[in-house]
Amino acid sequence: MSLRFQGLAFSALAWSSLFVSLWLPRLDPQLQLAVLAPLILLLGVPHGALDTVFVRQLTGIQSAVGWSLFMLAYLAAAASVVVLWWFSPGFFLATFLLISVIHFSGDPEGQTPAPFRALYGGAVIFSPLTLHAAEVSQLFSALAGESAAQTTVAALQWAAWPWVAAIGVAAIAGAKQDLARSIELVSLTALLTFAPPLIGFTIFFCCMHSARHVLRTRDYSSAGTLRHLLGIAGWPMLATVAGVAIAWWLSDGKPLEMRVAQLLFVGLAALTVPHMIVVERVRFTGWVMGRRTSR
Q1: What's the pLDDT at 53?
Q2: Structural domain range at position 159
Q3: CB distance 120 to 188 below 8 Å
């Protein structure tokens, strides 16, 4: 499967999901979290478990000592995010949103202009604030407290509709150069604007961001098959699931909705930071480099 076909398939899924959502009752946020969090864990998180592919080709690590040092550094970076959230949840929330914009802006393929990438990454944050600010604020409250959540939403909400409008202009202007890329951006924005925030984010994270990264990793490493990549991701994913289980046990006593939201988004943030340290280097040096060095 090519990246272009994957993008068009995601666009079709986004519009289909929006159409189906018109006929479905609005699900309780707690039920949404209970259903969608495992999907994100099983379908979205595994793409980060492929970081060893990039590390092997970028650094040439072969020894057990080298891999042990890498894992310690990876876990230390993840733990620092959890510590930041524990001591300064408001600052954690603002930082998490910023790095999310930067990270998701890497999804468009090819020589995509920087303004287009910025609008794409920002769509994940700003689009849900257009029609679902109250739901977003509720989710943020579980992470950073009600006061910080309301302040953050108020600070961002004023830019939500202008951001969506700018996306429309960018999509029209860029359609002549790359129609598929513009369709992808409009589909992503529509999904995140009109679908409930958790549902929209889950579809985007699993079916666009994660799926695209897996395909890029396949091409970068010349792995040949996705089955081979799943084998590589197996042990890191088992470790991640074990960590989630331990964190769930340690968080006993909190309301269920808060526990799930904190585990989901704090966990994603903790894994995103070391993941970005590895992947952004590949992004800025060019995805094609891996194909050359792996031969």
Answers
A1: 77
A2: 3-14+26-293
A3: yes
